[in-house]
Amino acid sequence: MEKKKWKIGCVIYDCDGVLFDSLEQNKRLYNHIALSMGRAPLTDEEAYYCHAHTVYESIHHVFRDDKDKEEKAVAFWKSGIDFMDFIVYLKMEPHLMETLSALKERGITLAISTNRTTTMKYIMERFNLNSWFDMVVTALDVNNPKPHPESVKKILKMLKVNREDVLYVGDSGVDRDTAKASGVKFIAYKDEGLESDGFIDDHLNLLNFLSNG
């Protein structure tokens, strides 16, 4: 079956699991927090939860049965962690840079909508991504993190693009729900089971959905 093609003005990316293989990094980070608070290592379910949610949602989930440890974990997050110790475990997804370059050549604006918070600036600097993206919205920049549509709506307003001309690339139900609530097209990355307008397992395949050559 021939792929749908659209004339696209903006592509919005999730960060974790899309721009980067970050599951190992997130596991190490939240296990460090858990063990530092005297808790057992994360279960697989907890690790995947933390992979898709904000740091405060994640800490609440990990310490959901102990409010005192949750408060201590939040304080530890704010003052006791060197993020660079964990960012080194991020692995950029294959063919990402080639795809970003091809999109830029077509005059398409690029943005990131992520539930990350303070770590995002370190990631952008470490991987030299600031010049590639026209806008980055983290959970710190909105009142309501994903799957609420606020982050995407903020991007649409600031970059002056219509939602009909936007592709959102994500890898989780949180991303799917964000795109749906925002009224933008959703491309599922590496999860063919997600309800979507299209599926890719390689970043370069995103170009096949564009009618603007």
Task: Write structural notes for this entry.
It is a single chain. The chain has 213 residues and is an alpha/beta fold. It has two domains: 10-21 and 91-209, Rossmann fold (3-Layer(aba) Sandwich); 23-87. The protein is built from nine helices and eight strands. The protein has helices spanning 23-36, 44-52, 55-62, 67-79, 84-87, 96-105, 119-126, 150-159, 173-182; strands spanning 10-13, 20-21, 91-92, 109-113, 135-137, 166-170, 185-189, 198-200. Strands 5-4-1-6-7-8 form a six-stranded parallel beta sheet. Strands 2-3 form a two-stranded antiparallel ribbon. α1 (23-36) crosses α2 (44-52) and α3 (55-62) packs antiparallel against α4. The longest helix is centred in the first third of the chain and has 14 residues, at 23-36. The protein is elongated, with a radius of gyration of 17 Å. The model has no long low-confidence stretch (mean pLDDT 94).
Characteristics:
alpha/beta, 6-stranded parallel beta sheet, Rossmann fold, two-stranded antiparallel sheet, elongated, 213 residues
Present the secondary structure layout.
Elements: E1 10-13, E2 20-21, H1 23-36, H2 44-52, H3 55-62, H4 67-79, H5 84-87, E3 91-92, H6 96-105, E4 109-113, H7 119-126, E5 135-137, H8 150-159, E6 166-170, H9 173-182, E7 185-189, E8 198-200
Parallel strand pairs: 1-4, 1-6, 4-5, 6-7, 7-8
Antiparallel strand pairs: 2-3
Helix pairs in contact: 1-2, 2-3, 3-4
